[in-house]
């Protein structure tokens, strides 16, 4: 999944960036509210991690502007421990959840997973389809009950397709969810990952839609 980190503190930003990328997320990082609003006009994200104390344009203004634009991307707001009024104001302005600084990175990951799951319309933490089960909390994949090891980017593709059976995703859409601005992407990267996935979960589950992209059929193979 592709996330936008909006955080002006370099030390916090680097720690969060490293953690999220190690967890397999594609992450873009901006350090002020004005640039965040510019980026959000052009680029879709699965979740925004937003600090409220930002230069040039504060986080609350970013959040309100985002919601005024009818952008419903889940927003996890980060606030200081004693900023209770700020938390309330953020939630009232359209934030989906908040986390208190200095925050525990494990808690942050759990809240991110919960918000992404909620945005996808899934109440259950484990999703199963056609004998393949994925658990976003642990990144575990099983096929007919047997564990299968997948890479971080294979996981992203599998989750994107498995929770949306019948929806065709183009190579560009998959790339946008898998890679951040600074990642170099080879022309056949998606094809390579899908080829590897098919060997692990079965050749028939992920289907090519010629000239369009990839999908998992609503009808189990």
SSE arrangement:
Layout: E1 2-6, H1 10-22, E2 26-30, H2 33-42, E3 47-51, H3 59-68, E4 75-80, H4 84-92, E5 97-101, H5 105-119, E6 127-129, E7 132-135, E8 140-143, E9 146-148, H6 152-162, H7 171-178, H8 189-201, E10 206-209, E11 213-216
Parallel strand pairs: 1-2, 1-3, 3-4, 4-5
Antiparallel strand pairs: 6-7, 7-8, 8-9, 10-11
Any descriptors?
single chain, 221 residues, alpha/beta, Rossmann fold, Arc Repressor Mutant, subunit A, 2 domains, 5-stranded parallel sheet, 4-stranded antiparallel sheet, elongated
Structure commentary:
This protein has two domains: 2-119, Response regulator (Rossmann fold, 3-Layer(aba) Sandwich), CATH 3.40.50; 127-216, Arc Repressor Mutant, subunit A (Orthogonal Bundle). The chain is built from eight helices and eleven strands. The protein has helices at 10-22, 33-42, 59-68, 84-92, 105-119, 152-162, 171-178, 189-201, and strands spanning 2-6, 26-30, 47-51, 75-80, 97-101, 127-129, 132-135, 140-143, 146-148, 206-209, 213-216. α2 (33-42) runs parallel beside α3 (59-68) and α6 (152-162) packs across α8.
Low-confidence stretches: none
CATH superfamily of the largest domain: Response regulator
> Which structural class should the secondary elements be placed in?
alpha/beta
Strand order of the largest sheet: 2-1-3-4-5
Rg is 18 Å
Number of strands: 11
* Number of alpha- plus pi-helical segments: 8
How many distinct domains?
2
Biggest β-sheet description: 5 strands, parallel
Query: What's the overall geometry?
Result: elongated
CATH architecture of the largest domain: 3-Layer(aba) Sandwich
Helices and strands, in order, run as EHEHEHEHEHEEEEHHHEE
Approximate helicity band:
40-55%
GO molecular function, one term: transcription cis-regulatory region binding
Organism: Rhodoferax lacus
DNA-binding region: 124-218
InterPro entries: CheY-like_superfamily (IPR011006), OmpR/PhoB-type_DNA-bd (IPR001867), Sig_transdc_resp-reg_receiver (IPR001789), WalR-like (IPR039420), WH-like_DNA-bd_sf (IPR036388)
């Amino acid at each position: 999944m592709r996330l936008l980190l909006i955080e002006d503190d370099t030390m916090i930003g680097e720690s969060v960036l490293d953690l999220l990328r190690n967890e397999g997320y594609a992450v873009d990082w901006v350090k002020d509210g004005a640039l965040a609003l510019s980026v959000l006009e052009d680029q879709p994200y699965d979740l925004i991690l937003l600090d409220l104390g930002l230069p040039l344009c504060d986080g609350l203004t970013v959040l309100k502007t985002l919601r005024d634009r009818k952008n419903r991307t889940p927003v996890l707001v980060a606030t200081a421990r004693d900023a209770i009024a700020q938390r309330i104001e953020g939630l009232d302005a359209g934030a989906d959840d908040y986390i208190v600084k200095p925050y525990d990175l494990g808690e942050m990951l759990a809240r991110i997973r919960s918000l992404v799951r909620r945005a996808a319309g899934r109440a259950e933490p484990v999703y199963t389809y056609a004998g393949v089960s994925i658990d976003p909390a642990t990144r575990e994949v099983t096929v007919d009950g047997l564990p299968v090891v997948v890479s971080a980017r294979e996981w992203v593709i599998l989750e994107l397709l498995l929770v949306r059976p019948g929806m065709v995703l183009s190579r560009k859409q998959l790339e946008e969810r898998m890679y951040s601005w600074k990642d170099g992407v080879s022309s056949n990267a998606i094809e390579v990952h899908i080829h590897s996935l098919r060997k692990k979960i079965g050749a028939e589950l992920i289907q090519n839609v010629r000239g369009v992209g990839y999908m998992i059929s609503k009808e189990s193979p």
